[in-house]
Amino acid sequence: xxxxxxxxxxxxxxxxxxxxxxxxxxxxxxxxxxxxxxxxxxxxxxxxxxxxxxxxxxxxxxxxxxxxxxxxxxxxxxxxxxxxxxxxxxxxxxxxxxxxxxxxxxxxxxxxxxxxxxxxxxxxxxxxxxxxxxxxxxxxxxxxxxxxxxxxxxx
Length: 155
Hints:
Elements lengths: L1 H23 L3 H22 L3 H10 L2 H25 L4 H23 L5 H33 L1
Helix pairs in contact: 2-4, 5-6
């Protein structure tokens, strides 16, 4: 159920963001800041509803310097992902953005294999190969289509 919810939410978010990004006249930096800032009330409400505030407060009080540094780096990386995502979305189509995001997940899986020695089944490898083939095919078709449009403009 969560996979389906994530898929629907991600697709809806990508399409909505792309359709609204150009009409709002916000810079990608402003979109990233607003997106992260406006998620705080929902996160706080969810944390209260699930009883997470007490354990979080305990964790923060007991946190060592290294743990705090890890959390800080995670926050910086998360903001960088948001910032980069809004910049890419402002420059490419929603479909191209989705292909890029899926390709980055494939790279993440391959890095997991290299760094953490994650074992992949034959089905997983087939799925990765299919994803890479789809991304390559999409890029090839897009490049071919753009080249045709450029030739037509010159003629």
